[in-house]
Amino acid sequence: MLFGVIYWRTKAFEMRRIAAFVSGEAIAVSQGSPDEIIWLVQTDAEHEYHDKYHNMTFSALFTPTGRLVAGDLQQLPPDLPIDGNPHQVALHRRGSDATPRPVIAVARRLPSGQVLVIARGVGVLNTLEEIVAGTLLLGVIPAIGPALAAGIWLNRKAQRRIKAVNQSIERIMQGAVHERLPVHGIADDFDQLADSVNRMLAEIERLIAEVQGVSDNIAHDLRTPLARVRTLLERGREKARTPADMAALVDRAIAGLDQAQAIITALLRIGEIEGGQRRAAFCRVELDEIAIAAGELYAPMAEEKRVQLIVDASSAAVVDGDRDLLIELVANLIDNAIKFAPEGGEVRLSVAHAPNGPVIRVGDNGPGIPVAERAAVVKRFYRLDKSRHVQGSGLGLSIVLAIVMLHDFDFIVTDASPGANPPGCLFEIRCVNANSGSVTLSPAPAKKRLKWPPHGWWRPRREADATAIGA
Amino acid sequence: MNFAPHADEQISTVNISEPAPSGYRAKILLIEDDQEIADEVANDLLDRAYDVFHAATGSQGAEEARRGSYDLLIVDLLLPEIDGLSIIQGLRRDGIRTPVLVVSALGAVNDRIRGLKLGGDDYVTKPFALPEIAARVEALLRRPLETRATVLRVGPLELDLIERVARRGGAAIELSKSEFKLLEYFMRRPDRVVTRDMLLEDVWHYRFLPQTNLVDVHIGRLRRKVDNCGGEPLLLSVRGMGFILRDPC
Fold it and tell me: Which of A10, A124, A300, A341 could bridge B217 with an S-S bond, Cβ 3.0-4.6 Å?
């Protein structure tokens, strides 16, 4: 089609050009004196003028009756109107070949009554037409064949892959959750798609496992307080003598039920936080202000335990996040630290600057957390053996981790004073608003940064960590 | 929440269910489609000497809110047909200024924020504790004293807001910043029950902090300073609900 257009445009251009040329020639020649005209025409005819485009020119002068005066035309072309305008006709050259040549010709009637004819061949354009047609036949049409074939083959190949993907998905939807789409390692669009889908499947599988795990946990950890309440009420029923006894019993039962409800609420909240919708309500949060308010809030509690609470949040530190959740994070960490600090001990809360963003640190000088237990300490309901006597649901740190993950912050558990005895425990939250979301368990500097999760735990919401999904 | 009494706690025998002195029973419209919850809430409020009208659907509730003259509306955001947010928006647009207590699901943070922006005055989340609803209902019905007075007085207690000094019967009391804010909060709401959640939100601007026993510790310290210098105890605990600053007059 392109060839066609080029040819057509070229032809039109050429025709116009020739027509203009011929008209111009005719006008120019007719301006001369009669002798000049004859001379020009004769010279033209004698030299069989070929210009550089290998076009032919004709020129001739006729009497009013059509008899040739000079030139290289046999006779006045009958189909050429004598109006001074260019027309396309076919002319015979005088004396030579019999084949008429296609030209654009102009016939002008001179003041003397004679007729001047100037013409220019357009045969070249016909040659051009033949060339184009030839090219088309020789080149383009043979090219179409393989192109079509290639197109069909590629399409079939793509369809086959799509079919394979659909079948895989079908099987997965019917329960084969661990199956993954095949990836051919070509890194084309299909592979990328398969990769994305596989990651999604991994996440689904993990969530399913986690839900199962959590239901087990909930069931187990609610049974204990509820069983206790039941025992309390049963025994009390027998033993209570006075209404006051009964009232006290009922109070204890209510306390037990409140505890059970607190566990349920905490688990629901962790679920809500993990759901991620709270990200939509993120805004600027001033960590230093939170830390100072938290310090005020916990000061009496620390005092009662005779623990010194030090807050170091002198410079402004701003992050993007959920204010309520970040308050809860800080509160949970302080709560935890005060609980485990020895009497007369010290808890230090600080908000400091770091190149990647503010860092929240909560440290105590208590027994610290043994390296071996650091992975487990944030698991739900886990209580360190030596501190099972401490009141609480054991979910505080789980909530902390859920909040950390929601914000894509980094969470580090390490010794507050490495080497000292007792080493104390330090929780560090690196508020990097860029992509991280990892958890480090070894003391810094950590060569080996464990990427969460180990089996059945939260995972950072980053593509780069996709490979870390194990089991 | 741990309601076990502390050693030095004064248990109040204040009877919350007495109607206000004038005998007026406030009219509350409850828009809630869950029958069980509606029963619980309505019965509790009736016990506390309020009149309660229950609308089980959003449209019924919206209509009733415009028709009757209620002192308070309790609106559940999750309703069939019309949702609570639209009801509140509609009412405010029509110029109805009745205080609204919004009830929302636990995770619906955005709904809550919108609920307040569209004209709600306060909110509780499901599952809620009945005392919480009761305390907030009362708080909305009897707004705190928005006086421009620079000195607040409740009985023998005096709080100078400019000098930041507290006095009981003329004798000065040393208060920390938190304790001052806490006492000011109570003194703006004399004779009204205040829950631990309310204190955490309004005094420390924390929401949803589960460690509400923190509040007890603060109250304990404040109480020691305010009540232990002789005279009758003014800062009392209300079993199952929270605390109250009693005006002896």
Answer: A300
Mutate to test the interface with A, among B125, B200, B204 (most CBs of A within 10 A): B204
Give the domain extent around B200: 151-245
- Looking at chain B, the number of H-run helices and the number of E-run strands are 8, 12
Predicted pLDDT of residue B128: 79
Contact A324 B210 (CB under 8 A): no
Q: Does the residue B173 lie in any domain? A: yes
What's the pLDDT score for residue A385?
A: 40
Provide the pLDDT confidence category of residue B71 given band limits of 50, 70 and 90: very high
Residues of A near B (Cβ–Cβ under 8 Å) read: 251-252, 254-255, 258, 261-262, 265-266, 268-269, 272, 275, 277-278, 280-281, 293, 296-301, 304, 324, 327-328, 331, 335
Q: What's the pLDDT at A459?
A: 39
Give A301's contacts in chain B (Cβ within 8 Å). 214, 217
Partners of residue A90 on adjacent β-strands:
A102
How many other β-carbons are positioned within 10 Å of the β-carbon of residue A437?
23
Q: What is the mean pLDDT of chain B?
A: 82
Q: Which amino acid is at A322?
A: D
CB within 8 Å: A297 and B214? yes
Domain-terminating residue out of A240, A274, A308: A274
Number of domains in chain B: 2
C-beta of residue A55 within 8 angstroms of C-beta of residue A44: no
**Are residues A293 and B2, on separate chains, in Cβ contact within 8 Å?**
no
The answer to whether B13 contacts chain A (CB < 8 Å) is: no
Separation of alpha carbons B30 and A39, rounded Å: 117
B52 confidence band (pLDDT: 50, 70, 90): very high
Cβ of B23 under 8 Å from any chain A Cβ? no
Does residue B2 belong to any structural domain of this protein?
A: no
Q: Examine the domain organization and report whether B79 and B164 are in the same domain.
A: no
Count other C-beta atoms under 10 Å from residue A306's C-beta. 11
User: What confidence tens digit (pLDDT) does each residue in B189-216 have?
Assistant: 888 889 988 898 888 887 766 666 788 8
Q: For residues A311 and A378, state if they share a domain.
A: yes
A180 domain-assigned:
no
The pair phi, psi for residue A424, each rounded to 5°, is: 70, 165
Residues 6+ apart with CB under 8 A from B127: A261, A265, B106
Q: Which of A289, A290, A297, A400 should we substitute to test contact with B (largest number of B Cβ atoms within 10 Å)? A: A297
pLDDT band at residue A47, thresholds of 50, 70 and 90?
Answer: low
Average pLDDT of B19-27? 68
Q: Which domain holds residue A409?
A: 281-468
Domain count across chain A: 3
Contact residues on chain A for B214, CB-CB shorter than 8 A = 297-298, 300-301
Number of Cβ atoms within 10 Å of the Cβ of B193 = 22
B208 contacts on A by Cβ (under 8 Å): 269, 324, 328
- ipTM confidence score: 0.70
* Domain end position, chosen among A104, A127, A150: A127
pLDDT tens digits, A278-293: 777 788 889 998 999 8
pLDDT at residue A381 is higher than 60 = no
